[in-house]
């Protein structure tokens, strides 16, 4: 019997196995609860992943070059630096900040009245990296030679730990999902074996009236597969609904304040119920075979 | 139909001497046998061998020509559809009404119950369970359970009927009635074997049918004494 | 029967209930898996909580006052501001930054050679708040009157979203723990009821030989309570071990890179097994009572 | 001991007429009764009333002087320790060996098995199960189960013994032996009631003991005909 035929009802065989209220509810509930937890964990993992990526691309892909030089050399050095940057592989674009922009950056420290133009402030150049990024050490070497007053700041040391932490959180989420999956499989297997053991007498009666092992196993397997599918579908549905109803967290944070699935990620939770049913099918089938060949 | 050649059987746990030994017997089509012997002699064990629930520890046992030792489990399932068995402890599926329990052999062999409705109704009437058809097994009295078990054994029109103490819980009139049913089926060519302690039943049967009475004692099968 | 007596063995009563291998394993496994998950979630929630608190105290408890004024008024205004701050309730200490300190702060922008003393840079005053903090609006009003060139910067708008996010993560963690607890309780209840239903015949036999309801219920309750306790203890132990063995994440991040329990937090996971056992006891007891009064 | 006054009982589902009605009977200490009647007449139901497994739908039933209608469930549990019952379907705890099953009434009433070891051994020998004491119930033959059930009913030395078809699955010699055991117990002052179809057993008993034979038929209790 393959996994799909486990979903085709067989009214005769389905009736001969007793309804077993609480084991049934236990399986449906377990599948639902675990699916619910899995959807939430998935949302968390995806959000952490999104965050890590966002930060990574927003930060690692931009860098600042600061040129401090005597007033008269400034334009020359700025131009050299820009040319050099444009030739560097991995640099998407490079642009010297305008005076107003520099003033805005300095405002928190000096107040709005700072005469940037009159000060020996360094010139800032904003660098956008390509996807692959540039080699900061190589760039530093070349700059040292050609633009002595330049200091390259890749922002790394400031936010790298945050990105790492988000990555770790994502990893933790996926590990938790795997764990939840394994736990669900084990629980369904144990529940199936418990149900088979509890129904030893039913199995004996069926054997005595000439039922084949495939017939008996089929009745149990079908039931557990369907229950797991139902439970996981309900749990996934509720989980997805809950995630969708979570407050978006507004513009401000962005960090984990929006757990909702984005775009194609909605496909992932939809995969849970069939996956759970497949696991239940395999687990019950092997459990049924073992129990049936064990009972004489 | 069922042929035993020097068959022996022992429940592993007992270790030493087998419970049954040197069993040689052929249940020919259309024959009628009684099996008797003291409690614990091995009558139920003997019947279990005959329907393939146990495999001989020695000797050869053939069911419908096939050696059970070589039979796969599904083969035994198919053989059971040709042998109707009334078990001494009459187990049922307690969540299904009596009528569905009686029709269970039909269900598991993939036959549709509706096609056999007439047959089913006749049987229920014969065993006096017409009024209790929709009760559940735990709601039956001891005798009603035995009669339901007999009906279940007969529903597939098996070639062989093995009945283990089928009248232990019913009154004398009912036991006569069930005996008549089995004799009638034997008259239609079915092979019948009844394990029982009830010597009055055996005497009553011998007055109506050509029956052989076997006695299990000390682990071996003998022809019964002249008093039966 | 109270919860503690559920742990006292009664060899006679314990034997009359069949060992029921798979239901037993199911309960032990469920309790263990859920406890494991709960320990991890707890570690995450606590780490998020620690983080939120750290950030909160590190950031919200410090503020900066920036005084921009003509050179000659600077010392005077600085002194007025410091006096005023010392009189403000909620201010722990206030201190004008030394020139070197200001230079260090400005270095990223201007390079190391900035002549701070010669520039019209504002004077920065670092404020440490007390636990309760000061009232920023009240302070701003008083400053406006007495130190016209002062701007109060409470840092709030920069990192508030991060603190909020950490707080949310903590909340999510606690919700998840509550959910795991509820799911465990439901599973144990269902498993207990399934076991009671599967043992209807055993119960019938016990009744027929004169066993009281309390005796029968006791045998089941004791068994489920013990199994849940065992499972939860194993799961908690493994979870705590896994958490303790997690890499510390080094000095750098601090954010979620150290999930390990700190100080008295170790007490929390230790509470899980007895709590789980208590839940199991209550759940099984009510299940047993219901089943026993249902079966005639 | 057990007093019925105009008791009626009907299984709810049947709706209309009750299965049993107008039952008035007193089982005096030391009396010996047989209960007979066709299969499904209500013999088992009658015995269930007598040990408090069912409560009368009408009339009054007193067990050891207490009205069962007002008895809490635990009260019934205690009453059961004073009444030994041999059930028709002899259910056991399949995970415990026969000897522990027989000692079960001791276990659940908090008595220590060791104290009664002598008693237990005697009983096992009497019912012929000495050799099977450590087997598990599913390994017993039908007759062995019935004998184990009888032993279990007697282990607490109950004042009343109710036996439902205790010899349905045992051979004639064994049934005589069990009957002698019950008669001996009756001689020691115990009240005994046996429900059976086995007229030969009743006849054999009447030759040895002062027994009253009751017949259930059409839902009412009558004294049996002169042939018994
Ligand atoms: N599964 C088993 N394992 C071990 N011993 C068994 C098993 N089943 C039966 N026995 C033992 O084998 C012997 C014969 O049992 P069997 O049921 O065949 O007897 P029987 O002749 O049918 O007796 P009865 O008339 O009492 O039904 C008995 O002593 C019984 O205890
Ligand atoms: N739980 C129940 N619910 C409904 N009907 C029942 C229930 N138990 C028994 N009956 C019905 O009540 C009638 C009497 O049953 P009971 O078991 O008392 O008969 P009995 O005299 O012991 O018969 P037997 O000799 O066959 O054992 C039967 O028709 C039976 O089907
Ligand atoms: Mg037998
Ligand atoms: Mg009866």
From TrEMBL, chains A, C:
InterPro entries: ABC3_permease_C, FtsX
Domain ABC3 transporter permease C-terminal: 175-290
Source species, domain of life: Bacteria
Main location per the UniProt record: membrane
Membrane topology: Multi-pass membrane protein
Gene Ontology cellular component terms for the protein in this record: cell division site; plasma membrane
Transmembrane segments: 26-47, 171-196, 202-221, 228-246, 266-283
Keywords from the UniProt entry: Cell cycle, Cell division, Cell membrane, Membrane, Transmembrane, Transmembrane helix
Compartments, record wording: Cell membrane
One GO term (biological process): cell division
PANTHER family for this protein: CELL DIVISION PROTEIN FTSX
Name the record gives this protein: Cell division transport system permease protein
Automatic annotation (TrEMBL), chains B, D:
InterPro entries listed in its UniProt record: AAA+_ATPase, ABC_transporter-like_ATP-bd, ABC_transporter-like_CS, ABC_transpr_LolD-like, P-loop_NTPase
One GO molecular-function entry: ATP binding
One of the Pfam families matching this protein, by short name: ABC_tran
Gene Ontology biological process terms, A to Z: cell division
Keyword Lipoprotein attached: no
Domain ABC transporter: 2-228
Entry keyword Amino-acid biosynthesis: no
The entry's keywords: ATP-binding, Cell cycle, Cell division, Nucleotide-binding
One GO cellular component term noted in the UniProt record for this chain: plasma membrane
Annotated protein name in UniProt: Cell division transport system ATP-binding protein
Species in which this protein is naturally found: Citreimonas salinaria
């Amino acid at each position: 019997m393959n996994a799909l035929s486990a979903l085709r009802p067989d009214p005769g065989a389905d009736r001969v196995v007793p309804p077993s209220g609480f084991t049934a509810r236990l399986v449906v509930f377990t599948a639902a609860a675990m699916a619910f937890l899995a959807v939430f964990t998935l949302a968390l993992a995806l959000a952490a992943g999104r965050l890590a990526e966002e930060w990574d691309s927003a930060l690692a892909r931009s860098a600042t070059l600061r040129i401090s030089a005597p007033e008269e050399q400034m334009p020359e050095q700025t131009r050299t630096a820009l040319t050099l940057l444009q030739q560097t592989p991995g640099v998407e674009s490079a642009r010297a900040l305008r005076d107003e922009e520099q003033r805005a950056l300095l405002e928190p420290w000096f107040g709005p009245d700072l005469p940037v133009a009159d000060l020996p402030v360094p010139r800032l150049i904003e660098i956008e990296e390509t996807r692959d990024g540039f080699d900061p050490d190589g760039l530093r070497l070349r700059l040292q030679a050609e633009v002595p007053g330049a200091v390259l700041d890749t922002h790394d040391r400031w936010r790298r730990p945050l990105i790492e932490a988000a990555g770790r959180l994502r990893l933790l989420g996926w590990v938790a999902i795997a764990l939840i999956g394994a736990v669900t499989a084990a629980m369904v297997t144990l529940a199936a074996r418990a149900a088979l053991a509890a129904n030893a007498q039913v199995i004996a009666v069926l054997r005595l009236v000439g039922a084949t092992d495939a017939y008996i196993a089929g009745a149990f397997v079908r039931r557990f597969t369907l229950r797991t599918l139902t439970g996981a579908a309900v749990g996934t549905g509720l989980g997805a609904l809950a995630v969708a109803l979570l407050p978006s967290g507004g513009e401000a944070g962005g960090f984990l304040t929006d757990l909702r699935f984005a775009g194609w990620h909605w496909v992932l939770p939809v995969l849970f119920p069939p996956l759970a049913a497949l696991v239940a099918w395999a687990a019950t089938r092997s459990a049924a075979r073992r129990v049936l060949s064990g009972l004489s | 139909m069922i042929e035993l050649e020097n068959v022996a059987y022992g429940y592993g746990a007992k270790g030493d001497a087998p419970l049954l030994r040197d069993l040689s017997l052929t249940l020919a089509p259309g024959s009628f046998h009684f099996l008797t012997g003291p409690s614990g002699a091995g009558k139920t064990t003997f019947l279990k061998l005959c329907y393939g629930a146990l495999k001989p520890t020695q000797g050869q046992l053939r069911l419908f020509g096939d050696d059970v030792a070589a039979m796969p489990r599904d083969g035994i399932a198919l053989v059971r559809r040709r042998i109707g068995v009334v078990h001494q402890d009459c187990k049922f599926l307690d969540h299904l009404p009596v009528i569905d329990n009686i029709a269970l052999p039909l269900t598991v062999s993939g036959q549709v119950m509706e096609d056999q409705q007439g047959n089913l109704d006749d049987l229920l009437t014969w065993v006096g369970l017409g009024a209790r058809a929709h009760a559940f097994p735990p709601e039956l009295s001891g005798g009603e359970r035995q009669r339901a078990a007999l009906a279940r054994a007969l529903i597939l029109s098996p070639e062989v009927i093995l009945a283990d103490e089928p009248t232990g819980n019913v009154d004398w009139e009912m036991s006569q009635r069930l005996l008549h049913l089995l004799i009638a089926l034997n008259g239609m060519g079915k092979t019948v074997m009844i394990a029982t302690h009830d010597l009055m039943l055996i005497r009553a049967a011998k007055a109506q049918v050509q029956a052989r009475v076997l006695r299990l004692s000390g682990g071996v099968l003998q022809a019964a004494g002249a008093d039966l």
